Amino acid sequence: MGASAHGKPFLETIGDSANHDIRFNLSHSGEWALVALTNGAEVGVDIERREVNRPTPALAKYAFSVIEFEQWSALDEEEKPGAFYRLWTRKEAYIKLLGKGLHLDLKSFDISHETDDVRLLDARHEDASDRVCFASFDVDEEHQGALAIRGERDALERISYWEWSPVANHE
């Protein structure tokens, strides 16, 4: 196991690694955890608990680029909380994909906030790539999740997912 300069963990390969280029990322919130595994494609995930009082204009202005903040501000008040968490988790998944975490300025890139056709609108930073796909999803009524994967749009079509719950009693 190794880690990038900014702490993103990776599996070190041994011997012939042509078919064993495993990449992974994880995130957790409350009782939920997201784990993404790929063969060769960088990946990032994020999960956040939706808090009623959290999506404030001050927090959005801190985390969102000028374009993202303007688009978010133009929404109806009832749309803002959902759009906030969709965009927040997409941005977190993206910076985790890059392996930079919060070392990357959150305002150095723009991601769409729509529910469909999610895409990177612009990136003004080192290591920028337009070959990133996003998926956003409701984990449950209280949690928002997002995945970012480096690759062409068909990368999302090859995603499989499973939900696992531990057994309460281990008798």
What does the model show?
By secondary structure, the protein is an alpha+beta fold. It has one domain: Ribosomal Protein L22, Chain A (Alpha-Beta Complex), CATH 3.90.470.20. It is 20% helix and 29% strand. It contains 3 helices and 9 strands; from the N terminus they run βββββαααββββ. β1 and β2 (9-10) form a beta hairpin. It starts with a strand and ends in a 21-residue tail after the last strand. The model has no long low-confidence stretch (mean pLDDT 82).
Structural class: alpha+beta
Report the uncertain regions.
none
| Strand order in space, largest sheet | 5-9-8
CATH topology type: Ribosomal Protein L22, Chain A
What form results from the Cα inertia axes? globular
Series of H and E elements: EEEEEHHHEEEE
The tally of strands reads 9
The termini sit apart by 33 Å
Mean pLDDT: 82
**How much helical structure, as a percent, in the residues?**
10-25%
What gyration radius follows from the Cα positions, in whole Å?
A: 17 Å
Question: Which band does the percent of strand residues land in?
Answer: 25-35%
Annotated CATH homologous superfamily: 4'-phosphopantetheinyl transferase domain
Q: From the coordinates shown, what is the CATH architecture?
A: Alpha-Beta Complex
